[in-house]
Amino acid sequence: TGEEAYSIAMLLKENAPRGAASPNLQIFATDIDERALEIARAGRYPATIATDVTPKRLKEFFSREDGTYRVAAELREICLFSAHNLLRDPPFSKLDLVACRNLLIYMGPELQEKIV
Predict the structure, then answer these.
(1) Beta strands in 1-116 (DSSP E)
(2) Is the CATH code 3.90.1010.10 the one for domain 3-115?
(3) Which pTM was predicted?
(4) What is the pLDDT along the chain (116 residues), one digit of tens a residue?
(5) Element of type H or E holding 44
(6) Rounded distance between C-alpha atoms, residue 70 and residue 89, angstroms
(7) Can you name the residues that pair with 44 across neighbouring β-strands?
């Protein structure tokens, strides 16, 4: 639902050089669950995220909307969410970082080996 992609985007923005040296960031976030992708694209989360997100990050990367927090447009523009099935679809190429937090634990050994 976008939390990991937006978290990575925040970390990269916080640590990237500023000004002319600022890199052009692009994050491709994929899932097979279209509903989760819709939530991610909206970038809207309940107010309870304030217990997990620092006040500094809430101020810099979110806005309050109707009792929720909405991810700032600059982060939503960096993160592209799309459906992608690792077992069926071709892999992405020319990537600098691949994060698959908890992905393989949902698969048996045969699928894990096929993906790797």
Answers:
(1) 27-31, 44-46, 62-65, 68-71, 79-83
(2) no
(3) 0.88
(4) 999 999 999 999 999 888 878 888 999 999 999 999 999 999 999 999 999 999 999 999 999 999 999 999 999 999 999 999 988 998 888 899 888 877 888 889 998 888 88
(5) strand 44-46
(6) 31
(7) 70
